UniProtKB/TrEMBL annotation, chain A:
This is ATP-binding cassette domain-containing protein. InterPro entries: AAA+_ATPase, ABC_transporter-like_ATP-bd, ABC_transporter-like_CS, ABC_transporter_ATP-binding, DrrA, DrrA1/2-like_C, P-loop_NTPase. It is found in: Cell membrane. Residues 4-238 form the ABC transporter domain. GO terms for cellular component: plasma membrane. It is a peripheral membrane protein. Belongs to the ABC transporter superfamily. Drug exporter-1 (DrugE1) (TC 3.A.1.105) family. The lineage of its organism: Bacteria, Bacillati, Actinomycetota, Actinomycetes, Propionibacteriales. PROSITE patterns: ABC_TRANSPORTER_1 (PS00211), ABC_TRANSPORTER_2 (PS50893). GO terms for biological process: daunorubicin transport; doxorubicin transport; response to antibiotic. The keyword Membrane applies. Pfam families: ABC_tran, DrrA1-3_C. It comes from the Bacteria.
UniProtKB/TrEMBL annotation, chain B:
It comes from the Bacteria. The chain crosses the membrane at residues 40-64, 76-98, 119-145, 157-179, 186-206, 253-272. It is found in: Cell membrane; Membrane. Pfam families: ABC2_membrane. Keywords: Antibiotic resistance, Cell membrane, Membrane, Transmembrane, Transmembrane helix, Transport. It comes from Kribbella capetownensis. Residues 38-278 form the ABC transmembrane type-2 domain. One of its GO terms (cellular component) is ATP-binding cassette (ABC) transporter complex. One of its GO terms (biological process) is response to antibiotic. One of its GO terms (molecular function) is ABC-type transporter activity. Belongs to the ABC-2 integral membrane protein family. This is Transport permease protein.
Amino acid sequence: MAAVEATGLVKTFRTRKDTVKALDGIDLEVPEGTVLGLLGPNGAGKTTAVRVLTTLLKPDQGTARVLGHDVVMDADRVRSLVGLSGQYAAVDELLTGRENLWMFGRLYRLRSQQAKQRAEELLDIFDLTDAADRTLKTYSGGMRRRLDLAGSLIAHPRVLFLDEPTTGLDPRSRLDLWQIIRDRVREGVTILLTTQYLEEADELADSIVVVDHGSVIARGTADELKAKVGGERIEVVVHDPAETTRALELLIGSLDITEPDSTTKDEHTRRITVPAPGGSSALVEVIRTLDTGGIRIADIGLRRPTLDDVFLTLTGHEAEQKEQES
Amino acid sequence: MSAADIDEPGTVNPLGRAFSDAGILAWRTLKRIPRTPDMLIYATIQPIMFVLLFAYVFGNAIPIPGFPGPRAYREFLMAGIFAQTMAFAVASASVGLADDMSKGLIDRFRSLPMARSGVIAGRVVGDVVFNAFVMLVMVICGFIVGWRWHHGFGQALAAFGILLLFAFAMLWVGALIGLSVGSPEVAASAGLIWLFPLTFLSNAFVPTPNLPSGLQPVAEWNPISSIVAACRHLFGNPSPFASPDGFPAQHPVWLSLIWCAAIIAVFAPLAVRKYRSATSR
């Protein structure tokens, strides 16, 4: 049985000016014990999907089940089985770490003593014991996010929803959080996480669903998606804007590129990109070709596909950044 | 500990759960108060300031019909100040809940297997307890300026009970406002702005016989007036009415209780309904 399954989810928001289809018929399935990455730009509908699956929003159409329980009809049961950790750390700033966890434990219907004990366990796991008696105002962003995640784990949820768990964190805190998430996976927790970063989905997810404008535009493993984008690319910035065209022609010749569409060139920024199926060996070839051709290179690098590349390839437009998600 | 230690939702008495969740959230509301000392100070200084301003600035300018003497206004004033302060409690609920909403805490609470009324009830109960403290400060202040109760401690206690019941009722209105506007800044003004005409068009600071005759019935049936009149009646303070034979003058305590019940009956379900669909942003 799938831990999470959703079919044909539609959710429309009406504002004064227009109506926005935040979800436009999304199907999802997360097998038990696996991690699904919901990947998309701001405004794609990721948060709305999580809100429907965690009973915060009722879908206009479609059905969703978590561990077999309907999220609308059996919302209370779903709430007691899942954990949700949101985009911004939803914890009480004026309570201490210990008080926050005790409160959430009590609200999950633990008895006071159990809630205390569970709070201690989680403070220990999340390396927050030293800060346990400080109010959250004094916590760093990474510490808050860890506490928020700890709050969602109090009742040993079998399904965990993480809405952009690392957005806004520094690289070190991001790595810490990734480790914490991996540990949960090892314990058998099913996870649905949303992210704007392909890298994050790549690191954590067994399979990835790419969403845009409320619809699924691709599904697959990270490798499958990257293959669609064409794998790694080489990005070259030439010294003289007048030479961009000639540089690209030389590279198309020397790298045997059969599809000129897979390359890009921008005279304004003096930047050209070409696919690099051979990785670093192609990099050597590019440098040799341009050097022989007498073209001066200002900058060069091997670039892994980004979310933008995925979007460019899948939709023909770049990932639009919208301010409002809902 | 394992998942089995958590009660299944169906096995818990829903009423017991509502009370227990409200208790936990009330604990939270009260824990926060000493940690925002600036708010604590403003919440107590403001009523003290009102007592002193009205007692000493307006006191000599506003005669109380049928109650001559310099101390009459101060006796008259205190019930009005009490009721006004309880009414203004609206703001703490509206700002508190709007703040929780903007910080995503309402989403977190809604994702928990809690009673749907728990978050608001916890807020309201915590704020009532805090208002009891504020009232104690004001009582002391009132004693200093020369206010007294004359019908014994039991009746005075009944008056304080009515005032706290009124605060409880008004806090549900504040909860509805806070959950509707969603930003603490808007909630601060939206929670208060309509209270100014409501409190000033009442018997709180000016005896209703002194008002223009067209406004007198409005002011005498005003819910705030009913609370004030009930307190004056129970304290034995001067309580002049423009129409001394009307229902508000004859049955001040009953009218105050009816008003409180009506406000709760209307706004508590509305606030809980709003909470059920409230989401951040």
